[in-house]
Amino acid sequence: EAREVVVRANPQMNALIVDAPIQRMAGFEKLVQQLDQAQIVEESEIRTWKLPRIELEAAARTIRELAAAGHLGATDAGTTVSVSVDVASDTLIVSGPPAIFDRVASVITSLEAGPVMPTTSLRTFRFVQARAESVAPMLREILVARMQQDLSGDESAMERLLTVTADRKT
Question: Which of 51, 99, 134, 153 stands the most exposed, by the fewest C-beta atoms within 10 Å?
Fold first, then answer.
């Protein structure tokens, strides 16, 4: 059965191999770069939001200021909140502990009326520091969350459209 998005981790190359439609490509490179450069601890997540109706730098600045003031929720001493933007795809990228994301989502909702749609764009990227087989499960979670918003939680469509593998045979 044909899938819209196929992601494979290749441990030998330390790379992700991605096959997907071009419209899903715009923000993926930024996501992969952030996954690769950040020292990801087990309790960290990375989430993205597509925000075409608001000024991205202003939204990023707001999230950074809230994080610096401790208003996003509990963060451990060694855990940081990172906020970046991909202007080309109108994407806000936030990484940090899972506890912050409910507050981040509510801040974003208050900044923009209407639905906040995450974006996905896909290519093949070679990792420099991160291990592809470690990143693949996190990437799957991110893509599932994005697609759930697009598909209104249609699980059968999700299984039909997304495949992420991370075995040494691919």
Answer: 153
